[in-house]
Amino acid sequence: MSRSFDVIVIGSGPAGYIAAIRAAQLGKTVACIDEWKNKDGKNAFGGTCLNAGCIPSKAMLESSELMHRAQHEFKTHGIKTGTIELDLAAMQKRRATIVRQLTGGIAGLFKANKVEGLVGHGKLLAGKHVEFTPADGEVEIISAQNVILASGSTPIELGIAKFDDDKIIDSWGALELTEVPNRLGVVGAGVIGLELGSVWARLGSKVTVLEAMDDFLFMADRDVAKVAAKDFKAQGLDIKLGAKVSSAKAGKSGVSVSYDDANGSQTAEFDQLVVAVGRRPHTDNLFAEDAGIQLDERGFIVVDDECRTRVKGVYAVGDCVRGPMLAHKGSEEGVMVADIIAGEIAEVNYEVIPSVIYTSPEIAWVGKTEAEVKASGRAYKVGSFPFAASGRAKAMEQTSGMVKMISSKDDDEILGVHIVGPMAGELIAEAVLALEFSASTEDVQRTIHAHPSLAEAFHEASLAVDNRALNFPNKP
Ligand code: FAD
Ligand code: NAD
Asked: Could you give the C-alpha distances from 317 to 123, 264, 327, 340, 350, in angstroms and in order?
């Protein structure tokens, strides 16, 4: 007789493994199937996020930031260091260790929650059967009451710059370089382009980023994008906007790139080229034709607001469905679906999902940008507070940037918060909570913030909304 589970999850990234653990917590029998193989040939749970995305990129951002600060900032603090040298092998070893520990942690969590972790390929068949092809061993047909598809995404490949895993690489390749390229080209000034461009620029590469759009960070608030563009330029990141790449030819010594921008046809030579122009949903061989799953025109699995596919009892979560491709969005969808399967009431508030770019300064936001509020026609008021006026930021030697708050004029509700500056990725959590609770500006104004702290800038921005900031001149 074939094995059977209450829930089978295909994919163990942050969407899938969290769904599996939550379903098990709710008393369901659960299996989670994943085929991920790392570059050392070893299988691991955790998906893109833990193996090739969020975690390793943050490890490299932290290490390279420390190197940069040791080289450029310590002397300001009165710390003499002598020559600072890079040991890239040690830095990469640390990254790999963090990844190994965290992915091993998921295997431990599966055990503790009695989730059956299955290593291999999963394919949904008709009738909620799943064909499991183990990494070694025989194909098995498993059945389930409910199936959650959490197959994630993969980098988009450009026809004119195909990945060769050597000269033209994707973000995963760019995270695991064993030598610092002298000249690194990056196609795409999105989140990955900026984060990984920053890593290698801090470690000594001359980094050029080619971005097709004319606007820098088009998805961010304009004031925030302006500060970020200035700071990245000062750090030596050469970001070329309106640059449309027409060809990239890899040779023995590097990559020759042609692109068109406002000044005409250009060429550039790089040692290596990272292509980071977005990611696409990964659904290859994920379901049989007669399984009833529908894809939209961009390849995402079609789901409703509660992540239900067209097939009763089959759900899809994370990067393989609509919405921002963010780990925390996928995880919350995983929790929601597990709760729904167990008969609980659950929802995801898609209006309140924070975005963070882990550059220096960090960039973070939640809710609407000023342009979006303006376009909605709602009357609004804006306040901002610069970190240059924050005692804590001064003590940290990190005074670039600001907190900006946008609130409605009619009922004082906070509509959006945009931060560029130190620890923006941590500071945004308070704004997320405020928006989740539909807080008014006055609620934040009346909340006591510790002194001296970066969070005071959030408080002061809320005061500035009503022209009553205390530590910075208000608008006349
Ligand atoms: P994934 O993490 O992609 O996991 C899907 C899993 O499913 C994989 O392990 C895959 O092997 C498995 N799988 C797929 N099909 C099958 C099958 N048929 N059978 C068996 N297994 C299968 N997001 C953030 O929120 N914060 C960040 O800081 C951040 N940094 C990033 C940095 C980089 C360089 C990259 C590339 C991404 C980053 N992201 C970040 C995005 C984040 O990684 C994704 O949004 C997140 O991993 C999506 O989770 P997921 O579970 O949907 O899919
Ligand atoms: P992205 O969508 O953030 O940025 C892609 C950029 O490439 C855009 O600015 C786009 O205009 C540009 N582009 C597209 N085609 C181009 C072309 N032919 N030539 C030049 N530029 C071109 O995508 P990404 O940086 O690849 O990241 C993928 C996903 O991973 C994102 O959705 C992001 O949410 C997620 N991610 C998140 C984090 C984080 O949360 N900190 C970090 C990394 C990745």
From this structure: 16, 43, 11, 13, 13
Task: Give distance in angstroms: CA of 192 to centre of ligand 2.
Answer: 6
Q: Which residues of 76-101 are buried (b: 16+ CB within 10 A; e: fewer)?
A: eeeeeeeeeeeeeeebbeebbebbbe
Mean pLDDT of 281-307: 98
Ligand 2 shell residues, CB under 6 Å: 158, 187-193, 195, 210-213, 245, 276-279, 324-326, 356-358
How far CA 370 is from CA of 258, 296, 405, in Å, comes to 36, 31, 9
Ligand 2 atom 2: residue of nearest CA: 278
Proportion of the chain in helix, strand, coil states, percent, rounded to 5: 35, 25, 40
DSSP at 113: T
Apex 276 CA angle, 274 and 279, nearest 5: 140
For 103-124, write each residue's pLDDT tens digit: 999 999 999 999 999 999 999 9
Ligand 1 pocket member 418 (CB < 6 A) = no
- C-alpha 137 to ligand 2 mean position (Å): 38
Average pLDDT over residues 286-300: 98
Which residue type, as a one-letter code, is found at position 45?
F
| Ordered structural domains, the chain, with CATH | 4-155+280-350 (3.50.50.60), 168-277 (3.50.50.60), 361-465 (3.30.390.30)
Specify the ligand 2 atom closest to the Cα of 327: 40
